[in-house]
Write a structure and sequence with these properties.
Largest sheet: 8 strands, antiparallel
Mean pLDDT: 75
Number of strands: 15
Helix content: 25-40%
CATH class of the largest domain: Mainly Beta
CATH architecture of the largest domain: Distorted Sandwich
Strand content: 15-25%
Number of domains: 4
Low-confidence stretches: 107-114, 124-156, 179-186, 300-326
Order of helices and strands: HHHHHHEHHEEHHEHEEEEEEEEEEE
CATH topology of the largest domain: Glucose Permease (Domain IIA)
């Protein structure tokens, strides 16, 4: 009997030892694999716990501890009155009545002007609070043009690529090479094209050079490829080249020639003629057409609501640059929306405008250049004495000739988008002794 008991205990000990060795073997062989598999779950759980659960619990506890004492009706009867159901119901009824009354006042509802008469639209709309338009008469009278007092917006709108490292950007002024005004429609001589082409970017190419090679404005090339004036290009990249200046548009359901013309500010007859359309009903959904002379609608620029209630300080007019040039300086164009500032290789300041705005002499001086200047397009340069010259670029029309005397605020050109420009605006430079200066140090 004793022998049997000893044998049983020995067998049990062997089984336990075998089981223990098996566990050790599993730990050695399977343990690292399990740790490797479970490691991502562990770190995810740890991050969730540390970044979400614990901060959330602390925040909830903080809110509960500090807010509860304020919201208790016994401690604050005023808040209790506001939070009771009757006050909430009354507020909802009043707001509903205001909205209904505002809608009833609308005599006509159009998709493009929907909601413009609402209170919320008045608070956040980009009207006079965001873009101040100064008329030509104001500039001639020497109205203060202070970029520190007027609401100026900086957004990626109409700019140019006139950077200091570009070969066509120069501090050389004058020479009087062009004394007569060229036609605003004059462009590099390029064979007429009727179809969209594809161009493969080569080493050393720039967007401005490609556009000039094909006799197009830089804007047209940018629009056709969904690029901006700051977009980089790389060797081998394929670019779509439109046949003429304008917009390439893919016809959508519900489109009409008149609708497309209105959308892009173009002429319906030109669209029909260029695309060989027999009638206004000949559009095919999904087909691509060319909109000659068209421009994409500009995005609406909205100012933060806080800026609307910020009063505009009144800054008295002061002579700027009088120690550098001659007389009082004035703002050089009608609008005051700066789309690109001086610096980071940009040689001047870009000021937004359209074909109804003009450029004005920033100070008294003599016209020393009037004509086409490479990437600048149609350009005016005015010498103010003391080695100081101002340059006005990208115009559609020029009003003055070389040798003509101009006064501060005198209209000298019409805003355009010639040269290396992505849209209608004025590129304004100040050059002193063949060095670019910050124009905002001279005009304001």
């Amino acid at each position: 009997m004793l022998a049997i008991q000893l044998q049983s205990k020995k067998t049990l000990a062997h089984l336990l030892l075998f089981l223990l060795r098996g566990l050790v073997f599993l730990k050695q062989k399977v343990g690292p694999l399990l740790r490797f598999i479970s490691r991502p779950f562990f770190w995810v759980g740890f991050l969730i716990l540390r970044r979400l659960i614990i901060p959330g619990y602390r925040f909830a506890f903080f809110v509960r501890r500090h807010v509860a004492r304020v919201l208790l009706p016994v401690k604050n009867k005023a808040l209790y009155f506001i939070s009771n159901r009757y006050a909430i119901h009354g507020t909802v009824i009043v707001l509903g009545a205001i909205v209904a009354f505002s809608n009833i006042r609308q005599s006509e509802v159009r998709a493009e002007s929907f909601g413009e008469q609402s209170i919320l639209y008045a608070l956040v709309s980009p009207g006079a609070q965001t873009t101040e338009i100064v008329r030509a008469s104001d500039v001639r009278l020497g109205k203060p043009s202070s970029y520190t007092s007027d609401p100026i917006i900086d957004y990626a709108g109409d700019v140019d690529t006139l950077y200091s490292e570009d070969e066509y950007t120069t501090t050389s002024v004058g020479t009087g090479a062009i004394s007569t005004l060229p036609s605003p429609q004059q462009k590099p001589s390029v064979a007429a094209r009727t179809h969209v082409e594809e161009y493969v970017v080569q080493s050393g190419d720039t967007l401005g050079h490609i556009a000039e090679t094909y006799g197009l404005s830089l804007s047209s090339v940018l629009w056709a490829n969904n690029l901006t004036g700051r977009s980089p290009i790389r060797d081998g990249q394929k670019l779509v080249i439109p046949p003429v200046d304008g917009v390439l548009y893919t016809v959508k359901k519900g489109d009409s020639v008149s609708k497309i013309a209105k959308q892009f500010g173009a002429d319906s007859q030109q669209i029909l003629a260029f695309n060989l359309l027999e009638s206004v009903d000949a559009l095919t959904v999904g087909s691509q057409i060319v909109v000659p002379g068209g421009e994409p609608p500009k995005p609406v620029v909205r100012a933060p609501v806080a800026n609307i209630f910020k009063p505009t300080p009144s800054v008295p007019s002061a002579p700027r640059g009088s120690a550098e040039g001659v007389g009082k300086w004035v703002w050089p164009t009608d609008w005051r929306v700066i789309t690109q500032y001086y610096g980071w290789k940009h040689t001047g300041v870009d000021i937004d405008g359209d074909y109804t705005t003009h450029s004005y002499a920033a100070a008294d001086g003599t016209v020393i250049y009037s004509g086409w200047r490479n990437g600048y397009g149609y350009t005016i340069e005015v010498d103010h004495g003391g080695g100081l010259v101002t340059r006005y670029a990208h115009h559609s029309k020029l009003y003055v000739e070389v040798g003509e005397k101009v006064k501060a605020g005198q209209s000298i050109a019409q805003t355009g988008t010639t040269g290396h420009s992505t849209g209608t605006h004025l590129h304004f430079e100040v050059i002193k002794n063949k060095k670019f200066q910050n124009p905002l140090d001279y005009v304001r």
